[in-house]
Specification:
- By secondary structure, the protein is mainly alpha-helical.
- It is built from twelve helices and no strands.
- It has helices at 3-23, 28-37, 42-53, 55-62, 65-69, 73-96, 99-129, 138-154, 159-169, 175-200, 205-225, 231-252.
- The two termini are 20 Å apart.
């Protein structure tokens, strides 16, 4: 499908993804399949999808500046470095994955990300209710963060839920702090992985720039509409989309 024919679908998918990310998350369930269905190869589609949704992480991180300032700067620098390393490693792993192998993995990745998204409310409740020991479990938290960052650089779907689960299990009970760390590390690893994709020439630029603009606009309107749209309904819609997309990719595999 040529760019002019595909552009309305890509713009609509990216706009809807921006709205979803502003309200409940899960925008990559729309951007990645839209790129693949319009003829972009899966690995390039994954890299381009990461580019399209990357601006949203900055706004989310800035919204949690007070929570981040309350944390030790040394810890933030260390975890940002780990996230950067993992994001680049995941991007490089994607770039060396044979296209046919990645196409076979995609349905499982989508299904895994959908399951993570569906588990999101339960993880958030655990974060709110778990006892806080004040210390965390840094001994294994950082290797786990590296693993999650590698996954995020390789395939972005469900990244936020994995990070929330990591910090919750590590003993952080303050939900705003969990969200602040999730957004900061997502921003770092996403932008570093996108930089690796750019250097490797793995971005479909016309599609990516169009979708970036549309996703940013969707995020703006989504933030305004979030007061009107019931979040549980939106979440159910995202889960349904994730399941449908998983089924379609299994059928294509």
């Amino acid at each position: 499908m040529d760019f002019l024919t595909a552009s309305p679908l890509l713009a609509a998918a990216a706009f809807a993804a921006g709205v979803l990310n502003a309200i409940a998350g899960g925008g990559s369930f729309l951007t990645f399949p839209a790129l693949v269905f319009t003829g972009v190869p899966p690995i390039v589609a994954n890299a381009t999808s990461a580019l399209a949704v990357s601006p949203g992480y900055l706004g989310s991180t800035l919204g949690f500046r007070p929570e981040l300032r309350a944390l030790p700067a040394r810890r933030l620098r260390r975890e940002m470095a780990i996230s950067a390393l993992g994001g680049v490693a995941g991007a490089l792993l994607l770039l060396v994955t044979p296209a046919k192998l990645f196409a076979g993995i995609v349905p499982w990745l989508l299904l895994f990300a959908t399951a993570l998204f569906a588990a999101g409310p339960a993880i958030a409740r655990r974060a709110a209710l778990a006892p806080h020991d004040g210390q965390g479990r840094a001994g294994w938290r950082e290797p786990a963060l590296l693993g999650v960052a590698i996954y995020g650089g390789y395939f972005n779907g469900g990244l936020g839920i994995l990070l929330m689960a990591l910090y919750t299990v590590a003993g952080e009970s303050r939900l705003n702090t969990v969200n602040a760390l999730k957004n900061l590390n997502s921003l770092v690893l996403s932008w570093l992985s996108v930089a690796a994709f750019v250097i490797a020439g793995a971005i479909a630029w016309k599609e990516g720039l169009l979708m970036m603009v549309a996703a940013t606009a969707g995020g703006y309107f989504g933030a305004r509409w979030s007061r009107r749209l019931p979040a549980p309904w939106v979440r159910l819609g995202v889960i349904a989309v994730g399941l449908v997309m998983s089924a379609l990719f299994f059928a294509r595999a």
